[in-house]
Write a sequence for this structure.
């Protein structure tokens, strides 16, 4: 069965709404992602997000060893325009990107302006897994007390993200994907702390 | 001839745009995200902002509730339900706890909302600073700089005039200690329901082309002064004539035969449910 651009995308969107409004919530879009033809350049969950959010009205950037291939795929799927990482509305940091490249993206992506904080980048980051990483404690809107995340990534991104989000409402919104078709979102409001080792 | 509709009426490009705006709204609680509002086949001012949100969200497995000033059966609520039913086939319910998606005008239901539910509020006037600042450019600047001295002054002047915080509906709130926000014309009675709500609340203004959000578990404080605290409507000593409820938002009605005023739940489905649950005497 192939992906239904109306109904499957709607189901995935509601999962993303839950993820964005409840940081720490692990959304699962396995059923929808399973309907895609595998692409060597991109995880199925990432592709679903691209199809859900991109069109000619927005721009994107890609960080990957297979950048040209991924850009071509996104162009074909969505007709969105590729642009620089400084100007992009959506930035895809794919699984073969280095930790340094991720940091560079976090440092240079647009965080919006005080009067237009929504003109800021949404960064989609592929990870090996959204479980089993070192424990992070999340707090902020969407979280009753504290929530946890276990993103399998070199932790250097946490401090850079914190710096770019220091002047709310300016900031970056992150969506992590993994090979098990899961999503985890960290809107700019989410406070992330590394769990103390006792 | 049978007209073929898109699922949920809107084309996918329109949904994408509304969805992108909605996600930014969730990430910046209380901030009004602009979007390109569409024309819809319902009357202007009949909640096209809320309806566009609903249409961008709704899926086959949803259960929908639409209420207008507390009533599931008003002309407005019925025409919205008809349009959604015709273009999605999604069943509508009156029971708040059975709904996954609730679109409302001027009320937050009495039954507490929970995780797994989503409330969409229709907004006629999204800009809480418009009362004293006509320029959109200027209100955007004031929000950007968190300059709310004008909002406080306006509130202060009302207190001087009426000796209480007597704004009635749409009493402004501070969201996440950052943005002053119009909660839509809900009674003050409903304002506290927004504070640390378990359900996500999305607000849509069609004519003004704005979408904004209150995520779950987000602080929402009604504006007030230390010596003139916020006072929601209360109905001390009164209970609903039909179901006996107290501590709910009630309409004051007049019985011309008995020549007396009486009170009744404004949330009609809540009232009916309570009456049905009571043993017949
Ligand atoms: Zn009643």
């Amino acid at each position: 069965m192939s992906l239904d651009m109306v109904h499957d995308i709607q189901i995935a969107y509601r999962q993303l709404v839950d993820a964005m409004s409840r940081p720490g919530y692990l959304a699962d879009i396995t059923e929808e992602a399973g309907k895609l033809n595998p692409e060597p350049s991109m995880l199925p969950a990432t592709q679903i997000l691209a199809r859900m959010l991109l069109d000619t009205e927005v721009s994107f950037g890609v960080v990957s060893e297979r950048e040209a291939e991924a850009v071509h795929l996104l162009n074909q799927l969505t007709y969105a325009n590729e642009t620089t990482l400084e100007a992009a509305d959506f930035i895809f940091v794919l699984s073969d990107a280095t930790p340094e490249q991720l940091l560079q993206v976090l440092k240079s992506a647009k965080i919006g302006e005080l009067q237009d904080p929504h003109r800021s980048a949404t960064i989609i980051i592929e990870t090996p897994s959204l479980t089993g990483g070192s424990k992070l404690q999340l707090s902020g809107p969407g979280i009753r007390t504290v929530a946890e995340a276990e993103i399998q990534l070199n932790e250097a991104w946490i401090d850079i993200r914190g710096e770019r989000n220091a002047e709310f409402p300016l900031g970056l919104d992150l969506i992590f994907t993994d090979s098990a078709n899961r999503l985890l979102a960290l809107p700019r409001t989410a406070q992330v702390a590394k769990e103390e080792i006792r | 001839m049978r007209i073929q509709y898109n699922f949920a009426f809107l084309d996918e490009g329109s949904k994408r745009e509304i969805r992108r705006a909605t996600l930014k709204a969730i990430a910046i609680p209380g901030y009004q995200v602009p979007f390109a509002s569409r024309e819809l086949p319902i009357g202007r001012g009949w909640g096209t902002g809320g309806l566009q949100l609903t249409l961008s969200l709704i899926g086959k497995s949803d259960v929908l509730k639409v209420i207008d000033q507390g009533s599931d059966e008003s002309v407005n609520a019925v025409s919205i339900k008809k349009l959604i039913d015709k273009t999605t086939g999604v069943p509508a319910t009156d029971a708040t706890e059975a709904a996954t998606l609730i679109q409302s005008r001027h009320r937050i239901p009495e039954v507490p909302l929970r995780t797994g539910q989503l409330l969409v509020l229709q907004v006629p006037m999204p800009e809480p600073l418009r009362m004293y600042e006509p320029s959109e450019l200027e209100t955007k600047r004031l929000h950007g700089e968190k300059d709310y001295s004008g909002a406080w002054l306006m509130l202060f002047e009302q207190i001087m005039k009426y000796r209480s915080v007597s704004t009635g509906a749409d009493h402004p709130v501070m969201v996440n200690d950052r943005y002053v926000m119009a909660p839509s014309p809900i009674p003050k009675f409903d304002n506290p329901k927004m504070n640390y709500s378990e359900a996500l609340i999305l607000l849509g203004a069609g004519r003004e082309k704005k979408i904004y959000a209150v995520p779950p578990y987000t602080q929402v404080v009604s504006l007030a002064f230390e010596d003139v605290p916020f006072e929601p409507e209360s109905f001390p000593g009164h209970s609903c004539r039909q179901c006996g409820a107290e501590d709910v938002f009630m309409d004051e009605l007049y019985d011309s035969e008995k020549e007396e005023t009486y009170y009744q739940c404004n949330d009609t489905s809540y009232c009916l449910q309570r009456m049905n649950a009571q043993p017949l005497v």
Remarks:
- Residues 195 and 220 of chain B are 4 Å apart (CA to CA).
- The mean pLDDT of chain B is 93.
- Residues B 240, 242-243, 245, 264-265, 271, 274 surround zinc ion (CB under 6 Å).
- The radius of gyration of chain B is 19 Å.
